[in-house]
Specification:
- This protein is α/β, with parallel strands linked by helices.
- The protein is built from five helices and five strands.
- The protein has a single domain, classed as Rossmann fold, CATH 3.40.50.
- A five-stranded parallel sheet has the order 2-1-3-4-5, sandwiched between helices.
- α2 packs parallel to α3.
- The longest helix has 11 residues.
């Protein structure tokens, strides 16, 4: 059975690139375009890993992560923070909020599948 990846991204071009990067690796891809949708989709779809943009409409990526982590069934799910605004100290902030790992955007199409596989223990 293929692993399910939730991609949370409000920019359609970035969403398409991420999907095109991961699709050849056989993952089942589900998408959300804002923080509220991310939380609801995570709870309904129960993904194996979440790729979370940090700058989102409605609620931020950090707030969405906190809401997801507050649910006992999602305490251990790997979450990869994705952001274009990589500043010194941001990685620590995202890890503290509950992210498992961090990657800056624009995504590296060679590194992303490797990181996702690593987070899934593949």
């Amino acid at each position: 059975m293929s692993k399910k990846v939730l991609i949370v991204e409000d920019d359609p071009k970035n969403m398409k690139l991420t999907m095109m990067t991961l699709k050849p690796h056989g993952y089942e891809l589900v998408c959300a375009a804002d923080g509220e949708e991310a939380v609801n989709t995570a709870f309904n779809e129960k993904p194996d890993v979440i790729l979370m943009d940090m700058q989102l409409p409605k609620i931020s990526g950090i707030e969405a992560i906190k809401q997801i982590r507050d649910h006992p069934d999602f305490a251990e799910i790997p979450i990869l923070a994705l952001t274009a605004y990589a500043m010194k100290g941001d990685e620590d902030k995202y890890i503290e909020a509950g992210c498992t790992a961090y990657m800056s955007k624009p995504i590296n199409t060679r590194e992303l599948p490797v990181k996702v596989a690593e987070l899934l223990g593949e």
